[in-house]
Amino acid sequence: MFSSSTELSGGIQAAVRDGCGAIVGGGICRQVAAGFGVPGVVVVPREGNVLQTLKEARAIALAQRKQRRDLHELRTILDTSRDGMMVLDVDGRVRFANEAAVETLRPLLGGAPMVDARLPVVLVPLGVLQTLETGEPEFDKVRRVGPIDIVVSSSPIRVDDETVGVVATFREATRIQNIDRKVREKLYTKGFVARYSFGHIQGDTPAIRELIEKARRYARSDAAVMIEGETGTGKELLAQSIHNASKRSEKPFLGINCSALSETLLESELFGYEDGAFTGARRGGKIGLFELANGGTLFLDEVADISPAVQMRLLRVIEEREIMRLGGDRMVPVDVRIISSSQRNLATQDSEGQFRRDLYFRLAALRLRIPPLRERTSDILALLVALFARHGAKLDELATPLCDRLSRYAWPGNVRELDSLVRTYLALSDEAGFSERLFLELFEQLRADRERSSQPSERSDGPLRDQLSRIERQIVLRTLEDCGYDRTAAARRLGISLNSVWRKSRRSPQ
């Protein structure tokens, strides 16, 4: 292609000098060729040929423009990705790297070029050359590259069953940890919070004052706490108070009743599971409570009821500070403070071999005992005032005789039983003020029902089997009441099956 007649003349002269015997072109080409003693052939294109050529030229131009646009869009998409992306050819030369890749790897390169050059030696630990050699993909591998931990996935590029390159995506491990932290914070805002503090604990007896003071001191520590106390004494309230007074107060607080779940379900709740870990597993898997509570506190209520297998897994979490999801193949580090509770004396169970000794000592590094209501009867009035206020009612005082009668009752259900009495009273009361008559009537009914259910039947008539059945039913009903009518917890406590609990509780007295 010549832009002037001078260039055309020089070109034809050079062609003749190189041995060209004829020149094909337009009329001017024939004239110049004749001047150099070479024949010239004039080509006159038809109109159709010219139009076809123009159409083809236009199509080529449009295709090139679309290709440039597509490449620009692809480049923009790849540069928008927060993950680093890099493409190597079969010789190990870097053909492409998006902005995230350049930004991540720049501190390691020291200004050395990366694109259109062989993969720098400092980046060999990424493992992409290994994928290029083996043709086997790798996913989510943690690689130490210089001072940085990088999570890398790489896949071979195949054409006609031949590996012609490799594409790798990666990001710094710290960024993944930050994302994980944000997810946990989002979950935290959804309600994984402790609602109660020490100010919610009612009572002024020396035992309660000593308990609160000791718990405040324990809140400064990060050691595991064991809270012992009968049902209904407020063990979770105390656990939440410790969390809110600790350095973990801005982190999640999660609780789980270990006696209410089967072994398998408890395991999946605590440790989570991967996709397809078992039949019925949620698609995509599930994050466990230990991971959700990371940085915060996990409250294990009625920890005495967990099975030996779960005890062993729990011990490992405490010792290694890491968990593995069910069906998983990698360890997940966790930083969780454990507060546990039990109605039973775990030290006794430990000596009897029912609870692992090593686990008990780790869970009970710090111990607290909540006194039952019968040991702090002088707090009953303050508790009643607080319970009435919690349910939107007001109670100023009680007559001394009524206070004395309440104080002489053992309150086997503790504060929870007292709260149940208040709820019943408020549901039945139509008076604007406090009706001592109605309250006393409900209290006496409560006491009579409790005493009747706690005493074996005095009937001694009938076969021994029938008498034993009546006593058995009373024991099952009493245990169900203590467990809040949770049949699974009652069955675990009694050491019988769920079907037995159902059958024995429904059996009509003879």
Percent in helix: 40-55%
Which range does the strand content fall in? Answer: 15-25%
Q: How would a textbook summarize the main sheet?
A: 6 strands, antiparallel
Q: In total, how many domains does the architecture comprise? A: 5
Q: What is the rounded distance between the termini? A: 115 Å
Q: Total number of β-strand segments?
A: 17
Q: Which fold name corresponds to the CATH topology of the largest domain?
A: Rossmann fold
Q: What's the architecture of the largest domain in CATH terms?
A: 3-Layer(aba) Sandwich
- Counted by DSSP, the helix tally is 20
Structural class: alpha/beta
What do we call the CATH homologous superfamily of the largest domain? Answer: P-loop containing nucleotide triphosphate hydrolases
Task: Please write the CATH class name of the largest domain.
Answer: Alpha Beta
> Based on CA inertia axes, which overall geometry fits?
elongated
Q: Spatial order of the strands in the main sheet?
A: 5-4-3-8-7-6
